[in-house]
């Protein structure tokens, strides 16, 4: 876990999207909850910077509010950094869900001799996917007072490490870290991309009673990357409810039934991970005749 | 005495004399009943080196302490003799009302020796024993014989076990059948036929007295409830035929005489499809709550029992894909009284011989993989011992010895008993279990496959644990087969040996402990082995057919996997060690003494 905080800006107008970006469903949860959850596994401190009165779901994060709505990113970064207890913060926005922790880790590693580490992707700085020391808070305050609402004005004034595109590509070849969603079309594309990149597909083959109950030999299940047998059983129960109570219950397989992975290993523990393409057989535990 | 009657009936068919004899308490305590009691009596009653078809070979029907107690799945009996197929012990089980009636005539074992001068049947009503003519029953199927005998005796409670034409004709894998069930393996029906004994009819009114009826009622209620839980779903809902589709997917369905381990047409033959398309009704043994038997509608409209082993042996093993054909082949085996596994195994051997030009006669029968008509004709020929049937009636081992060439390499037997439907190359623990089993390639006297199917071991590889796993499985099975408790209840115990001891304490009043039961299992298994050693067993008999040790698995998820002779040798070594036997598989004196085995007094 990084010795740093993560600051997530959510206070944008979402005018092109037509509805609040933070609340868009993403991977079965509001987008902001999704981003917080993912960052939580990497950062001990999460700060969400929202507009005054902005509606948000319950989050496991420190919530701070802009004093004035829609002042732009400098204000958000300023309030976020100011609230942090860590010396270093990773700043991002809630509409860029393709977080690449290898890249974020690389950015964090660069901060030791700098005040700001900022990627430069496709001829543009990416201030909302950058590392800032909290020591720059006074400078941002001055910028705000001067009405300089673009973060890049800071970069000439402090020790800034510009991360070139080639360096980024080694860890994030497509630059997905900087892909954000501004319009409904962006959102749809992001959802599709997320599913493609983060969904695994397994097939479950049913034998004996499971097959008889459901009149089904095989079903395909789409699951999140890293899914376990517990998720397989849960998704299977949703898809084929006839199995619930007879073959499956909330604890997984009912006593008397067993599971085989790819015809090779007999497994039962709910925390066994499955991989894309796995074939999972549900059969009677009593193999003999 | 509780649980037992403490006596046996020894009938000599040559002289017609019957003797009621006490059974020593220590024998009952040490060997429990069923297979254990039968084995101990065989050891004492069979003269060393006896020819299985000689009048001196005893045919033993053994009851057990739990029979008649009302405990679910316990209406079973054992048939023990020297096998004409293997030359070693044949210990088979059957079940239902005949088992209850055997106990009700007031004996724990019926020993039949001698040979009747003409085809006969035996009727026993309590103390009255009669040998009656059965010439009018010659050629009848077991069910027909049963029906005629019940009608002519006119005893309402009479129960009959009979042989079919195959038993009469000494087909070495003939069965003894009662109520449509069979004591199937090892040719016990041929031994009965060799005695000119067509059937045995029993009727009695002796109750089984238990030491603590209240205790037994409580245990019976618990076991009944467990027997209806999800633990037995498979047996209650589909039956053992459910194995076929699973085994096929796991690459462990022997197909075309073990040339493949998957069958392309498995879906059509699967238990699920049979249930969907052919299911007629469900049936159960007497005193059983599981009721695993599934009857399927055959083409002639009659109901036919079907178990996985029959389905595999007359289906994929012979390349037969059509469920109606397999059902009809099973009907024929029942009519003739044939062990379906050995029938399928021997036919598959012949089909492969035909493919390789070693057995031209098979063409006359159209006996080819996948050709159902050839299978029907050959089953009848075996039952009648006609034409090529005379050769095949000897079983695959003897037939291969006769034909020669390399045909022994694909005679899929151990000790002469044809392999059941578990592909050993993809079930390595089972491979060991099959190789060392005293009665030959058997899936019932140990359940070694359970380790392979549970994930406890890697089923495609070997390790040093296999010996102790197989030994433990054999001992467990020996106690189930002796008490007797059906194996389909085996998963319904929380602590089997403790619970079995509690059951036996309540039934007999004797102070059994879990360790006593476990020890009895070990003792019974060792005595089977001791009998085999006495009858000429050597280390070469604990081995698998050449095909399994020289060819890689051709199909399925385990394609390419091999079982090398060295792997098998290592596993056998680990098994002998786990058993406390010497490197040659012989039982040291110290082990015999530890199990109190040398102290059995001879009775002949």
Notes on the structure:
The complex is a heterodimer of chains A (289) and B (604). With 289 residues, chain A is an alpha/beta fold. Chain A folds into 2 domains: 5-182, Alpha-Beta Complex (Spore Coat Polysaccharide Biosynthesis Protein SpsA, Chain A), CATH 3.90.550; 199-284, Ubiquitin-like (UB roll). Chain A contains 8 helices and 17 strands. In chain A, a hairpin with a 2-residue loop joins strand 7 (116-121) and strand 8. Chain A is elongated, with a radius of gyration of 23 Å. The mean pLDDT of chain A is 92. Chain B has 604 residues and is an alpha+beta fold. Chain B has 3 domains: 7-203, Aldehyde Ferredoxin Oxidoreductase,  A, domain 1 (4-Layer Sandwich); 217-418, Orthogonal Bundle (Aldehyde Ferredoxin Oxidoreductase Protein, subunit A, domain 2); 424-594, Aldehyde Ferredoxin Oxidoreductase Protein, subunit A, domain 3 (Orthogonal Bundle). Helix content of chain B is 41%, strand content 13%. At the A-B interface, helix 7, strand 15, strand 16 and strand 17 of A face helix 8, helix 9, helix 11 and helix 20 of B.
CATH class of the largest domain in chain B: Mainly Alpha
Q: How many β-strands of chain B, per DSSP?
A: 17
CATH topology term of the largest domain in chain B: Aldehyde Ferredoxin Oxidoreductase Protein, subunit A, domain 2
Q: Tell me the radius of gyration of chain A.
A: 23 Å
- Please report the total strand number of chain A as a whole number: 17
Q: How big is the Rg of chain B?
A: 22 Å
SSE class of chain A: alpha/beta
Q: Shape of chain A, please?
A: elongated
Ends of chain B: how far apart? Answer: 25 Å
Strand order of the largest sheet of chain B: 2-1-6-3-4-5
- Strand percentage of chain A lies at 25-35%
What count of helical segments of chain B does DSSP give? 26
Residue-averaged pLDDT of chain A: 92
For the termini of chain A, the CA-CA separation is 53 Å
Which chains make the largest contact? A-B, 28 and 40 residues
